[in-house]
Fold this sequence. Notes:
The structure is a single chain. The protein is elongated, with a radius of gyration of 18 Å. The chain is built from ten helices and no strands. It has helices at 3-21, 28-35, 39-46, 49-76, 83-98, 102-116, 120-144, 150-171, 174-181, 191-203. By secondary structure, it is mainly α. The longest helix has 28 residues, at 49-76.
Amino acid sequence: MSCPHTRQKILDCAEKLFARQxxxxxxxxxxxxxxxVNLAAVHYHFGSKDGLVEAVxxxxxxPLNEERMRRLRALRSSSGFDVEQVLxxxxxPTLRFAEQGEGNRDFLALIGRAxxxxxxxxxxxxxxxxxxxxHLLLDLVCEALPHLSRDLLFWxxxxxxxxxxxxxxxAGQRSSMTEAMETVIPDFPAGDCLIGFIVRGLxxx
Length: 205
């Protein structure tokens, strides 16, 4: 088995397991068993479990962030924009990304976990990767809502990321929710529902 193919198999299996079982709920032994490789292969390609987690994030986060940055920069160069256009430029590429295959959906569930699980190291790793994008997003939100302070919008935007993370995580958990809550869960809302919720939260007095 070639090294690039081995690396790819490890990343695919790790992404799926991290998304469905959590970072701490997934052992390297489980990953290597599913990928049909030995533990030495993980250490060779990634150095450690933390290195593997970081590689899983970077693999898909790079292209996704490039698309979101492209849309936000195009919006900034336009003659005028409102906060909903800003949010759509950020959220819509993410939602379209989820429609491009099971691996992408697993990855978005993984982002959801990174935002809602109480693991400071994972969150720090994630925020390091999205920091330039977040700063641009915050700048545009502030431009769209100049009557509100930057400090207030900073926190509202963090709350918005929490809502988005929950949406991404729950999108793949409807069957589990139905079993746990012993009731029929309504159909999952479209992305417009999420965007509208966030926009109203940002615009509030």
